[in-house]
Amino acid sequence: MSTVTNDQANLMLRLYEMRREARLREAREWFVMNFHAKSLEEVMQKFPIGSKENTNMRMVASYWDMCASIVNRGLIDDELYFESNGEAWMVWDRLREIAPEWRTTFSNPQLFMNLEKLCGRLEAWREKISPGSVAKNREMMKQMMQKAMETRKQSAAN
């Protein structure tokens, strides 16, 4: 186990406090339940600029990319962060397929790069301590998404 400083622990607690802010919590809940896109075109169709959904998406992606930047710079120990921050991985997993297109479209090769780098290390760490856990997490997320979509369809039918 690595050595963690008081400053790192305090910064982790500050990031957690930010996660509890009502508007960000609302955006995170929306993202988990509703952000499922396979292309930038689909993102723009489903979540157009100026919509609350687009704001939610940007809030969540930028929050976790900011957290990743802090960890990537060594301000928080990787292991300390990885032990309690799986949501960043879920966000990256949803953005992973469309990030290259986003980077090209906006001529910004750094877009979500902090999140990508952090999650690459997170996946390696998870596989080291629990081989197969990354694939298992992806499968569980897929099942949860399918169940949520079925629930939404049933609610709409009633």
Task: Describe the overall structure.
This protein is an all-alpha fold and 158 residues long. It has one domain. The protein is built from nine helices and no strands. The protein has helices at residues 6-19, 22-34, 40-46, 52-72, 78-82, 87-95, 99-105, 113-129, 133-157. α2 crosses α4 (52-72). The protein is globular, with a radius of gyration of 17 Å.
Topology (elements, then pairings):
Blueprint: H1 6-19, H2 22-34, H3 40-46, H4 52-72, H5 78-82, H6 87-95, H7 99-105, H8 113-129, H9 133-157
Concise synopsis of the structure shown:
With 158 residues, the chain is an all-alpha fold. The chain has nine helices and no strands. Helix 4 crosses helix 6 and helix 4 packs across helix 8.
